Amino acid sequence: MPQFVAYTKDIPEGSSRKIKLKNGEETQEGFVIRQNNRFFAYWNRCPHISLPLDWGSEDFLTSDGKYSICRNHGALFQIETGECVDGPCVGESLEKIPLKVVGNKIMICPY
Ligand code: FES
Question: Which residue's alpha carbon is at the smallest distance from atom 4 of ligand 1?
Answer without folding.
Answer: 73
